[in-house]
Amino acid sequence: MVVVYAVLGETATLIDTGNPGEKSFYQLKSLLKDHDLSFRDFDHIIVTHMHTDHCGGVSLIQQEASLPVYVHELARPVITGGETEFNRINLFFSDFLKECGADPAVHQHARKYKEEIWQNVHYVNEGDEVYIGGRPYSVLHVPGHSQTDILLIDELQGITFVGDHIIPELAVNAFIEPPVPGRKHRPSPLIQYRESLIRSKGIKLGKCYSGHGLPFTQHNELIDKRLAQQDARCQQILKVLKEGDKNVYEICQKVYPHLKGKIVFLGLSQIQGHLDLMEARNEVMKEERDSIVYYRVI
Ligand SMILES: [Zn+2]
């Protein structure tokens, strides 16, 4: 289930836009109609992060009602970079799969470039204020699940839109992403994600509205649970590596044996994220052999 929020107050604001494509667009349109709303009734759209199930509807909605869209600054290269950026991202993932010891021909999604134009984009940063339903919310940048994740916090009302940063129903992945254009090294998403989670723990978020599932409170307990799950996964990987050196693909086959075909990427991304963390903790070291990276226990 993907959640889109229509927040009504002095104004109406749309948070996230659902999946790309006409089916999702018309579904959302008819859901709004059930509440006597149309896209034209909204002041703007805020995108919690640049995953297609959250930002996929932007261009179709803008074609119908030219609403401004707010999104984190790190979304700028994808939104403005066109085919060049698309190709750079594809090449990054192809190289990443090879480095893992996986075959891009089998495990990489063959995506075709489709031009998508966003208009009237406002890029936000940590500490900015955005208006939702006519009330000011502060923006907190919480990279990890994606590089563009933001929390939208109304401290006075005790309401936070958390996107996919924390979801009670599922343990959120921290996805491997390319470096921003011009940088050499990719981010370490799980390390970032844990830092962001620990940061969120220190903040009163009140009632949290996530991108998948029902609203919840007690985010601190949930964060402790997620951090412990990640530590347990590191222990599992360590156990696999004690049998001998392995590349990310080999570890993935042991840890997530059910993953096949294109979705293997999800497992590789997870394993790599944990290995980054274990490397930072001096638990493992890596070595490149024939362009494939192997990990061993220290
Ligand atoms: Zn997401």
From TrEMBL:
Keywords: Hydrolase, Metal-binding, Zinc
Pfam families listed in its UniProt record: Lactamase_B
Signal peptide: none
Annotated SMART domains: Lactamase_B
Domain Metallo-beta-lactamase residue range list: 1-212
Cofactor entry: Zn(2+)
InterPro entries in UniProt: Beta-lactamase_class-B_CS (IPR001018), Metallo-B-lactamas (IPR001279), RibonucZ/Hydroxyglut_hydro (IPR036866), Sec-metab_biosynth-thioest (IPR050662)
PANTHER family referenced in this protein's UniProt entry, alphabetically: ENDORIBONUCLEASE LACTB2, METALLO-BETA-LACTAMASE SUPERFAMILY POTEIN
Protein name: MBL fold metallo-hydrolase
Organism: Mesobacillus jeotgali
